[in-house]
Amino acid sequence: MTSDPDPAPAMTKESLEPATPAPAAAPKKRARGIPFKFLIPAVIALDILAVILVPPFPEGGTAGQACGFPSCFVQSAIELPPPAIVFDFSPSTAPSPLPMLYFHPSISSTILTMWIVMAFILLMALVATRRMKMVPGRLQNAVEWAYEFGRDFAVGIGGEGAGRYYPIFAAFFVLILVSNWSGLVPPIGKIPQLRAPTSDVNITIGLALTSFVLFQGEGFRRLGVRGYLGKFFPIGEFRHGIGAGLLALYVGIIELFLEFVKPVTLAMRLFGNIYGGEVALAVISALTLAVIPVALYGLEALLNLIQALIFSVLTLMFILIAIEGHEPEEHHPAAAGGTEPDHQAPGGADQSQPVAA
């Protein structure tokens, strides 16, 4: 016996009326702007117009003076290693010409720019950390993510002991990175009063000496005077013989000399890469049009990031090395009537035997 099929649904007025089609969504208006393909020709045209209207002139010359291509173009675009003096407190004793490394009571262009960089970093830190909430907003969330990412990176390369020194690592990284990138901002480096701080060897030596004082001071604080100097003058090794003592003393003196090489390498590596990058960028910009210098800007920004990371990582590692003791392992002989240290057999049985008196 089969069941009857379902009855047809009742016809209503609403079902008889044709369905009203949904209104079509209004087409979105595309934001109009300058197409990217027109940007490069526009910059090239601007470069050509700048050369015609404001041509370069020889170093020490005047505007409008003839400047031969390519040597004069390159020389007019390169900054000499000594920074310009902005405020001179003793003009009568100013060295002329300025050496690359000098001591003179004055404010140079790199010091002035570094003060501006420091003020910018402090202002950004105040803006990013004010009105902090338990439910962070976008800015606070980004800052917390950057802090945690940097701390995990420092702990990953230095171990758990690196966590307490992460603020030093972060301070060096942010200061050096912003100082490096400041040289890519058009006003800085284009006028004598402003120049990237890390393109001056005087500034990089100051940063390296600050790092040197930090890791040496931390070594003395954590190990004590005797313990820290014992890493370089292991007099106790003479207990194992004259040969062992002389060898340990020789290695310790070498390590002592290497301690004074560390700030030199920190300073010269940072200065050489930043100043060399600026020279390369100036030369390429003077000899070519916009396409190659724009690509070189991206490469220079990446190089500046790497150099800031290298300086801060080395500072962190130097601190961790300084607080690590070099004490030899002490072997205590078994006392009379005592027992030797336990030795477990492969099966787990205790194989220790009493020592005869």
Structural class: mainly alpha
Give the helix level as a range of percent: 40-55%
On the 0-100 scale, what is the average pLDDT?
A: 78
Largest sheet: 2 strands, antiparallel
Give the helices and strands as they follow along the chain: HHHEEHHHHHH
Percent strand: under 5%
Give the strand order, joined by hyphens, for the main sheet.
Answer: 1-2
Shape annotation: globular
Poorly predicted parts: 328-357
Q: Taking Cα atoms only, what radius of gyration do you get, to the nearest Å?
A: 34 Å
Provide the fold topology:
Elements (H helix, E strand, L loop, with lengths): L12 H4 L22 H15 L17 H7 L7 E4 L17 E3 H21 L8 H21 L7 H17 L18 H29 L12 H46 L3 H32 L35
Antiparallel strand pairs: 1-2
List the keywords:
disordered C terminus, 54% helix, 9 helices, globular, 357 residues, mainly alpha, single chain, 2 strands, two-stranded antiparallel ribbon
